[in-house]
Every structure is written in C-alpha cells, then in structure tokens.
Design a protein that fits this description.
Strand content of chain A: 5-15%
Oligomer: homodimer
CATH superfamily of the largest domain in chain A: Dehydroquinate synthase-like - alpha domain
CATH architecture of the largest domain in chain A: Up-down Bundle
Shape of chain A: globular
Largest sheet of chain A: 6 strands, parallel
Strand order of the largest sheet of chain A: 2-9-6-5-3-4
CATH class of the largest domain in chain A: Mainly Alpha
Number of domains of chain A: 2
Number of helices of chain A: 15
C-alpha cells in the first residue's frame, strides 16, 4: 500500500427530506450566496421552490446563474465569477448534477484568483483558495458532491480538462435520492457507467497491496450492477436510487483510491469524445471501457481481470484468460442491457478526428496508467470501438 | 437505506515516515499540548523520541500523562484534566493504541466540562466541547483514531462505558503500519477480533437496503481474514500491517454503519467481561462472537448469515441453514487459528457474575439489536461460551 494523506471533509446529509438542513447549515457559512443551476428541470420538479424557501427562511440573500450546460463551459464559469465579484458573494450553492457542481467549484476558486479561470482549469496548482461550495445533488454520476474535482470545457478550443483541489471540496452536500426519480432511463444508465468507470480507474492498477481498497471497489461495482437495472425500469425505487447515489460519492471521494498509484485511462480518452462531439460523458465511457479492457488484457494483467471476474461477476470456472474474457463480455453486455450503446458509430462518431483526439488523450498522462498507453494505443482503442 | 448525516472530518497521514507530519500540523492547532501514552513501549521502540523531536522542532511545549492502562480508567482521565487545566493546555496528543486515544478524548472533553468526567462517560450528550485531539496510532484495533468514541472504566464500580461525540473526533491521526511491527502475536490477533467485531456489529442488522455498506463490511472482513494470519506469523510484513491498520479505521468510522439502524450486541456483552475481569477486549469478543451468532441464527435471520457465508467465506453449496452454520464454524476456527481462545474457561472466567453481568449488558440497549436480547438471552450466551 502506498502512503497517502486522507482528507474528505465534506459533510453529507443523506436521505428523504434532508433539504431541510440547507438553510440552517448554509447561513453559518454565508448569508449572501450564488445559486447555480442548469437547464431548469429543478423548476419543473419543485426543487427550486424548496431551495428558495430554505434560503428565505434562513435570511440568506442570493443571486442566480442558471443554464449551466451538461459539459460546463468556461464562459459560464466566467459569468459566475463576475456575479460573485460584483455582489460580494460569500459562498456558491450548486443545485444539480455534476456539471453544475463542477461549474460552481471553478466559479468559487476563480473568484479568489487574479487571472482568467481557464488557467486554473489547465493547472490545478493555481487553485489555492476558493469560496465555500455547497451542493444539492440531483444526479448520481460524477461524485462531484464529495470531491474537489471539476471538469470544464472550452468548445472553441475543443478542450475539456479536469482540475480541482482540496479547497474546492464542498463543505456539505445534500443527497436526497428522491430528487433522482425524474432522471431519465438513459441518463440513469449513463450516470451508472460514470460511477463504474471511476471505480474501474481506481481498481485497475498495479498495486496489489491495497487489498481493502480493491474490495471496496468491488462493492461499488456490485451495487451498480444490482441497482442500475432496477432504477432504469422503476425510476422511483428508493432503495435503488439511494444505493446508486451513495455509490456515486464513494466511487471517487478517495476511499477507493488512497493507497494506490492510480492514473486514469478511459476518462482522458472519453474527454476527447465529449470535447469534440459534446456527447454525454457516461455514454462515451460505457462504449470505450470494454475495448480498453480488451486492449490492456495480457499475461501480465490477467490477474486483475481474474479478481474482477471472480469477485464481481462470480465467474468461478475456466482458465485465468477465460475468466478475464468472460468478465469483459459481461461488462459489455451489462452496459447494453441498461440501454447504452456499444460502439461509436451508434452515436455517429467516425474516425475523422481520431489522430488529434488520440494525441490529446495521450498527453494526459496515459503513460502512467495500468498499462502505459501512447497515441497509437489510444487510436487503436478508438478504432476497436467504431 | 436509512437517512444519515455523514461527518468524518479526521485527516489521516498514512504510511511510512508520516510522523514527519506531526509537528508542522500540530503547531497550527496548539503550541502547548498534553502528550498522553501508555506503559512505555513507545520509549523502547523509539517512537517517543521521534514524537519529542517533532514537538521540539515545531516549537511546541508539552506536559505528559503516561501509564494509561489497557482498559483506561477514569482516574487517568481525571489526572489528565488536572494537568490540562493547570497548564492551559490547548490540545491533547495521544501516542498509542485505542486505550490511550480513548483516554485522551475524555481528557479533552472533560477539560471543557464543569462536572466530573464520569458524567460524560455515562451520558455522551454532556460532551459538547473538547480540546482538539490528535493521535499517533500504534495498534490496529479499536478504530479510535478516526471516530469520536471512547470506552472508559471505573473498576471500583465494575463499570465500563462507551461514550463520545463529534467534538472528540481526532483532528488528524498518523497511521504508520511500521509502528505495529512490535505488537505481539496475541495482541495482533485480539486487535483483529476487535476490527472484525466492529464490522459484525454493523453488518448484522435488519436493513436490507444498505447494500453498499454491507459489501464494504465484507471487504473489511476479507481483509482481516487474509492478513491477520500473515501479521501473526510475520510481524514485519508491511502489506499485512497496512491493510489491518486501514481496516481498523474503516470498520468503525461510520462508512460501514451510516444508513443502517445498528445497535451493537457483542460489544456490550464483552464490556462486562472486561469490567469484571480486566481481560483484553478483543479476546472477549473473539470468544463471544461465534456463540452470539449461533444464538441469534434462526429462520428469520438466516438470510444475513447466507450473505456472510457466501460473500466472505465463499461457501456456495448447501441449504441456507447449512451455509449459515458453516460460516459460524469458519468464524470460530479462524479466531482459534490466530491463537485466540474459544471459551471463557480458557481465560479463567466462570459463571460467578453471569447474573449481574447479563443484567448490565442487557441494560445497554440490547433490545434494539439484530435480534433483541434480554438478560436471560445474554446469560445463555455466556453459558454457551463457558
């Protein structure tokens, strides 16, 4: 097990009716906040009114930034910073999914930064101070509610980068699984692919000594496999929504990665798909993951796939290589079973930009991954996924 | 899944050489601390010198309370409080195992309390404020390094109570697995029984919807089963010590219990053994656990034992009741295999005090457990364990 410094300070209010905690806890942080949200679904489902009622009854004043995009753009960040500065805002409250929370984080750090916030997106070391961030989660996927990361895009440059630091970890987040009842089957499936992909990125590493963390990863994967089909078919199944929501936080808050040298592989590749085609992140991950697995499976890595096959899919029979291949097949079948595409062609992506996308992904540290990958490797994986 | 408020603020510096973090992080909390430790083993193994060197180089002044007992006594707490008050101490630094850290926590809370600290031991609601607590861990067992709990004894009254609150959670803890190399085989085994018992207390509950948490529990149990025999045989195996140490923290910090209505059963019973006979806590737990399992196994509870048998012990064949019984047998055999006793007679405990011990244990809320237990039930379990 590698050395690590564990720091997960975010408080979580989890469960039905926990929105009641918002006002009383937020007013201790600031009485003047920026409320950030997305396309307005929170107005349709009544959450916006609940939030406003909490703010009003706690005597909190607020300004709003709405319309944050699914892959949040740097322009929205800049707009939020402007509002914060002009109004002496003391905290940023995100109500939405990972994109909204990500946007809120860089608004919070960018407000405390002299340069343009894109500088903080491409270099997380430039994030040293931030307004306190608070979130109310409406989508189980990115885990942004309990970590410091944010992914921001500049579509003019076709660039999408992950950034973040300890100071952008939310002070507290409210996780009421009922708020995800209205999430569509496709978004539920894509969110699950995101949770599973975070877990795979942590799980597939060469550190054999982080045994406990590997078992935790398997617990998250089994949870997704059990409950995603339930939530896709029965959107208001509380148990399924609750387990997926808690899995989303635990997959990426550090519990599964502390003690390992993890270097993500599929996320950087997918970020290029989203940056060039603005597709749903989880859809891209579901497509790429099985092909990445096939590509990196070899005699040296098979041990990890055997662990995965036995402990997650309960595949007990066969040679190591047979178990590994079956586990990859089961992964692909699972994503298809919850309605996700299996190839890039299905979402109208062709090989036009593969060269530049592969180069950009390779530049994101893929040589440090489970199996080091270069531009040619990435391009081959894209081609396998066509 | 039940509603929960997640709050695990303790930072962890985990791994080799992390003692280097002590001075620089502690001096930001206070420059005048009480150093609490036990019987002096830290002087033999050199840890005391390292701690002193850290304090000196950071310009931190300190007073000492040494000789804290394995089942820490209220008298030590009172002595520590006196030193804190007389010297204007600003933080309590525990260097040792769970007993030392537990003692430090109630010194920290008692210093901020007007009455006698025993009042805080019997009523955790009286703990509302505490000096900051910091720990350097030397034994993988109680998990006290990452939670708010403390168990304190008054041997004059034959009483041992658990208490604690959010304010007694350590601000940070240093976990260097190498400091546990000198822990004896018996203490290593007893510590593992403690970790496993915490996990069992969380795992065996009626909440079927906290699926993810149950899988995390299984991960901890598998970790203990894999690594305790290694650490017992090869005390300086880093991987084994590291996994046991991290398991000890994760077993009881809340990750395994949030979202469930857990009410502990075996711990309250064991506390009576320790209170009357001053035995090692983990030894008592190892003896009682399998008999408690046998006692509560029935047609209504068998589902949970089947989960346990299949997922932890990989017992796939047989009827549900057969799998359950096999799992209990495996548990008993495991504790014996790492050198722990299987009966109370082996540690010279007879039935003399069973009546009063059973009454006291039953008074600790055993009627809210996995299976509600009353005084007669507890007495029968003690008798089975004779």
């Amino acid at each position: 097990m590698q050395n690590f410094n564990y720091n997960i300070p975010t408080k979580i209010f989890f469960g039905k009716g926990q929105i009641e905690q918002l006002g009383s806890n937020l007013k201790d942080i600031s009485k003047n906040v920026l409320l950030v949200y997305g396309g307005g679904s929170i107005k349709k489902n009544g959450l916006y009114d609940k939030v406003v009622s909490q703010l009003e009854s706690a005597g909190i004043e607020w300004k709003e930034l709405s319309g944050v995009e699914p892959n949040p753009k740097i322009e929205s960040v800049r707009e939020g910073i402007k509002i914060c500065r002009e109004n002496g805002i003391g905290a940023v409250l995100a109500v939405g999914g990972g994109s909204t929370i990500d946007c809120a984080k860089i608004i919070a750090s960018g407000t405390c930064y002299d340069g343009d916030p894109w500088e903080q997106v491409v270099d997380s070391n430039k994030i040293t101070k931030a307004l306190p961030v608070v979130s109310v989660l409406t989508l189980s996927a990115t885990g942004s509610e309990m970590d410091g990361f944010a992914v921001i895009s500049d579509m003019e440059k076709n660039e999408k980068w992950g950034t973040g630091n300890d100071v952008t970890k939310p002070v507290f987040s409210i996780l009421d699984p009922e708020y995800t009842y209205t999430v569509s089957a496709r978004q539920t499936a894509a969110g699950t692919a995101d949770i599973m992909s975070h877990t795979f990125e942590n799980y597939f590493n060469q550190e054999k000594g982080a045994y406990l963390q590997a078992r935790f990863c398997e617990g998250i994967l089994k949870t997704c496999i059990k409950y995603a089909p339930v939530a896709v078919k029965t959107p208001d199944n509380y148990e399924a929504r609750a387990n997926l929501m808690w899995a989303s936080s635990m997959a990426i808050n550090g519990v599964c990665s502390y003690g390992e040298n993890t270097a993500w592989a599929v996320h950087p590749m997918e970020h290029e798909l989203s940056a060039f085609y603005d597709i749903t992140h989880g859809v891209g991950l579901a497509i790429l993951t099985p092909y990445w697995m096939e590509y990196v499976l070899n005699e040296d890595t098979v041990w990890k796939f055997v662990e995965y096959g036995k402990n997650v899919w309960n595949i007990q029979d066969g040679s190591d290589m047979e178990i590994a291949k079956k586990a990859i097949d089961r992964t692909k079948e699972f994503f298809a079973s919850i309605g996700l595409p299996s190839t890039l062609s299905e979402i109208n992506i062709n090989n036009e930009h593969f060269d530049i996308m592969a180069q950009k992904a390779a530049d994101c540290g893929l040589k440090f991954g489970f199996i080091p990958l270069d531009k040619n490797d990435v391009k081959k994986i894209f081609e396998m996924a066509l």
